[in-house]
């Protein structure tokens, strides 16, 4: 009798990096499986035995890294040592976020009784009080004038603003009101383009010079005179920016390294929290943590302490001769300036943080800075774990779905497991068959399957170790396997010298071949 559509496989989801690093290397990865069915095996004559390959894969630590969560990345140094990064979402603020454009910005009335009006620029530009403007370039702006005179004659109006120039020529505009005998009629001018005009001031004021006279040359005072920007925004602003506390931004970093931990020691030698900043604003900015809280797998919460958290971190910034450039900064919290190492070895699973960015934190008026319409800063916070740790009887466990169809005429099954271990740890592996919430059997009956540690020279693997194991499944055990919907795999890692600190290298991995030999009743 022919066996059709034989398909034995594990439905395995992507797991955390460290679980993948040790445990899933013992099990294989779904993305690496080479699963075949008897439909793909040519059998000319019916035999009483069928050999079916299930897994044939070699996975290295870098292969594992590709299957980890979206917030995880791996870096390898020049010696081949591996560091894992758990990344938060980038905090980004740009000019429109901090200094948004102001629509319909009304300039107050002028020339009602005198031909010259001065406006203080801190009332004109939408920045914090005390701002001193030196130079600004308008972007996509326009001015609209509203004018009226109750004089019973035609009136000509000339407006000049000497601080607003283009190509060295001051802004000016001319209007005629009370035309055609329409005495006292209020006019609203067309939009006057200010794009690429520059505003400069030495004393933080804007002067509006106005002349209004009748056709006979007599000066008059206007009854209504005002101007409005359709939108107030700039492509470049230079001046003194007062202290500005931006709204806080935050995120949660998921740290998957302990997600499958059961017991035993896993102590990292030098965990780090890194803050990387890109900044193109041309004035000082300081980052302060309002919250930096670590939650463990037991839901205990710890706050970080030390000089690193107290002082905050100052962004590097480009100077006036570096407009358009991006300055970078990096800040580091580690065992030397904080209690991060002690906290992390409590088995952290989440990092919550909120960050405030304070512009010109010292409110130093001697600092003349700038911004452009494309200025921004990015703050990228990550947990950095060099895979250098003490491992002491570490036990990890994870559960996977099973989907094994039932077939007639099967007497019993043997599973043949062949492995080549390229890790410097002895691994004891066991699998438990689960039906619902009940353990009904195990893969290895007497004791866990031992994968000998690879041989090392000067702490680095020099030769892998190989082993083969046969797992018999009689009718009763085959029934257990068929009735199981999950398998819980545990792995115990043993380091010969428990106090040794071990590095994980990029070419560490495991070669695994798992096959089933099916015996058919005659």
Can you walk me through this structure?
This protein is mainly beta. The strands form 7 sheets. Strands 1, 20, 29, 31, 32, 33, 37 and 38 form an 8-stranded antiparallel β-sheet that branches. Mean pLDDT is 78; it is low at 1-47.
Short key terms for the protein model shown above:
522 residues; disordered N terminus; eight-stranded antiparallel sheet; 6 helices; 8% helix; mainly beta
- In helices, the fraction of residues equals under 10%
The beta-strand count equals 39
Task: Please identify the structural class as seen in this structure.
Answer: mainly beta
Radius of gyration: 37 Å
Major sheet: 8 strands, antiparallel
The stretches of 5 or more residues where confidence is low (pLDDT under 50) are 1-47
Strand content: over 45%
Inertia-based shape: elongated
Count of helical segments?
6
- The whole-number mean of residue pLDDT values reads 78
Distance between the termini: 9 Å
What is the fold's blueprint, element by element?
Elements: E1 9-11, H1 17-27, E2 49-60, H2 61-66, E3 72-76, E4 82-87, E5 91-94, H3 95-98, E6 102-107, E7 116-120, E8 132-138, E9 142-148, E10 155-166, E11 169-177, E12 187-188, E13 192-193, E14 198-200, E15 205-214, E16 224-232, E17 234-240, E18 244-245, E19 249-254, E20 261-268, E21 272-279, E22 285-296, E23 301-303, H4 307-311, E24 313-315, E25 327-333, H5 340-344, E26 348-359, E27 369-372, E28 376-386, E29 388-403, E30 410-421, E31 426-435, E32 438-442, E33 449-451, E34 455-457, E35 460-463, E36 465-473, H6 475-483, E37 486-494, E38 501-503, E39 509-520
Antiparallel strand pairs: 1-29, 2-39, 3-4, 4-28, 5-28, 6-16, 7-15, 8-14, 8-17, 9-12, 9-13, 9-16, 10-11, 10-14, 10-15, 17-27, 18-26, 19-26, 20-29, 21-25, 21-28, 22-23, 22-24, 22-26, 29-37, 29-38, 30-36, 30-39, 31-32, 31-33, 31-37, 34-35
């Amino acid at each position: 009798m022919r066996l059709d559509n034989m398909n034995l496989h594990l439905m395995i989801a992507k797991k955390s990096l460290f679980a993948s690093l040790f445990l899933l290397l013992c099990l294989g990865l779904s993305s690496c499986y080479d699963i075949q069915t008897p439909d793909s095996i040519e059998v000319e004559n019916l035999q009483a035995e069928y050999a079916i390959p299930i897994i044939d894969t070699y996975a290295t630590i870098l292969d594992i890294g590709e299957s980890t969560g979206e917030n995880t990345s791996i870096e390898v140094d020049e010696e081949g040592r591996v560091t894992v990064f758990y990344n938060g979402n980038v905090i980004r603020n740009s000019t429109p976020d901090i200094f948004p454009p102001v629509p319909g910005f009304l300039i107050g009335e002028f020339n009602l009784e005198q031909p010259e009006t001065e406006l203080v620029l801190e009332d004109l530009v939408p920045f914090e009080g005390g701002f001193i403007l030196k130079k600004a370039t308008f972007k996509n702006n326009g001015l609209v004038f509203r004018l009226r005179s109750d004089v019973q004659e035609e009136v000509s109006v000339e407006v000049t603003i000497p601080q607003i120039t283009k190509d060295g020529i001051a802004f000016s505009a001319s209007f005629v009101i009370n035309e055609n005998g329409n005495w006292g009629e209020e006019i609203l001018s067309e939009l006057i383009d200010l794009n690429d005009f520059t505003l400069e001031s030495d004393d933080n004021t804007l002067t509006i010079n106005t002349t209004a006279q009748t056709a006979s040359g007599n000066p008059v005072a206007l009854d209504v005179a005002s101007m409005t920007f359709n939108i107030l925004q700039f492509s470049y602003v230079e001046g003194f920016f007062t202290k500005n506390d931006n709204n806080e931004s935050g995120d949660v970093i998921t740290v998957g390294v302990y997600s499958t931990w059961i017991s035993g020691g896993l102590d990292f030698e030098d965990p780090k929290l890194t803050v990387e900043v890109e900044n193109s604003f041309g004035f000082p900015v300081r980052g302060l943590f309002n919250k930096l809280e670590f939650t463990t797998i037991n839901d205990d919460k710890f706050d970080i302490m030390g000089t690193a958290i107290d002082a905050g971190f100052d962004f590097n910034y480009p100077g006036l001769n570096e407009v358009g450039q991006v300055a970078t900064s990096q800040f580091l919290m580690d065992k030397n300036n904080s209690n991060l190492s002690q906290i992390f070895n409590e088995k952290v699973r989440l990092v919550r943080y909120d960050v405030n960015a304070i512009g010109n934190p010292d409110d130093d008026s001697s600092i003349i800075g700038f911004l452009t319409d494309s200025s921004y800063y990015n703050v990228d916070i990550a947990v950095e774990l060099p895979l250098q740790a003490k491992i002491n009887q570490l036990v990890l466990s994870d559960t996977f779905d099973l989907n094994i169809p039932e077939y007639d005429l099967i007497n019993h099954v043997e599973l043949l497991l062949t492995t080549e271990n390229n890790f410097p740890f002895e691994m004891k592996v066991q699998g438990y068959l689960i039906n619902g919430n009940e353990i009904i059997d195990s893969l290895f009956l007497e004791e866990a399957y031992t994968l000998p540690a690879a041989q090392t020279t000067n702490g680095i693997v020099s030769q892998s170790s190989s082993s083969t194991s046969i797992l018999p499944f009689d009718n009763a055990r085959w029934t257990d396997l068929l009735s199981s919907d999950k398998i819980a795999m545990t792995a115990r890692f043993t380091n010969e010298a428990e106090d040794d600190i071990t590095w994980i290298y990029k070419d560490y991995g495991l070669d695994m071949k798992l096959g089933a030999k099916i015996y058919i009743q005659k």
